[in-house]
Amino acid sequence: MSSPRAAFTLLEICLTLVIGVVLILLAVPSVRGLFAEQRLRESFTRFEQMADAARLRSLRDQKPCLLSWQRDGIALLSSERDKHGDPLVIDRLGFSKDEDFQLERPAALVEKDKPVAEWIFWPNGICEPVVVSYKGPAGRWQVRFDPLTAHGTFLSSDTL
Asked: Which CATH number fits domain 10-159: 3.65.10.10, 3.30.420.40, 2.40.160.210, 3.55.40.10?
């Protein structure tokens, strides 16, 4: 008499595969969301480091510094001039083709239809209060920067 062999039935194997596929399908959106959040956080960190550099430079040199929004990125400008009379570019935060940083200056005394896309940091470490909005492939965020510390407070953040 032959003894029965221990083995899995076709039904058990199929059921295990179906459960595995369902678990993978449930996990993929969560992992994708984590990566999007990480990219969004990195975009804020890059911008915040640029703002910190402007504040520290203005304190160190005891001269105003400026973050200037340009077509291809944001430039950190010194109040010193080069030989052509243009402000010295200290650093630059480049935009990728799908990124957009917008600047709102709620306390600015400029015409609303011609807003100047510049954020000034004075020699005493104080900066102009601003709201910066970011939109990119990972999502969007909006942050209000405190004039005394130049640290940001999130107003909103969404991953796409």
From this structure: 3.55.40.10
